[in-house]
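The material for today's practical consists of a large collection of protein records. Read left to right, the backbone structure tokens trace the chain's path through space. An example says more than a description, so a record of this kind follows:
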Amino acid sequence: MQPLSDEQLHNLVERTVRQTLGGMMNPVPAPVPAIPEAPMPVSQLSPTPTSATKKIVAIGTDHGGVDLKTALKADLVEQGYEVIDCGTDTKDAVDYPDIALAVAQLVASGKAWRGVVIDGAGIGSCMSANKVPGVRAAMCYDISTALNSREHNDANVLTLGAGLIGTALAKAILKTWLVTDFGGGRHAKRVDKIIAIEKSYLKEGK
């Protein structure tokens, strides 16, 4: 079989995720020619970890996302991921940059495979996490942004706004984000340029 184009790969991933999430989005478009009739299960695209090969996900929230963090953490454990909880666990006010830094450092150091940060809107945590070299944080608010941030940008930290999205959507976004692979190809050189910008500032001490 001829290798799939970037467009065909995108359509395959999106269609498979739609089916996995039980029709939470719009109806799935007709299959793209040259894609096998039997869609590849999401588990084959990026397998859910087994007990022998658990992937570590760091998760943290400020006081605005404690309930959402609890729900997502339970989902992660159920799906077979090992979770590092960076707090907070109460609704007493804390500063989101501190939480974002804790999660981002775990990802940048390689101690966590991916990271998730929650605050009221997801914006401040995204800004904070992206200050850590090696982190590509993306604020996602629907399935499309989750797919794009992984497939096109190879994001390794996800930020969510607990005040903007509900628990069901947040779970769908996180699951999609975790199982979507980086597309590579033309996207790889662009991600390399993001990394090069970061390295140039580190080298010059700006």
Q: What stands out?
A: Confidence is low (pLDDT under 50) at residues 23-48. Helices lie at 6-20, 42-45, 66-78, 96-108, 123-129, 143-151, 167-179, 186-204.
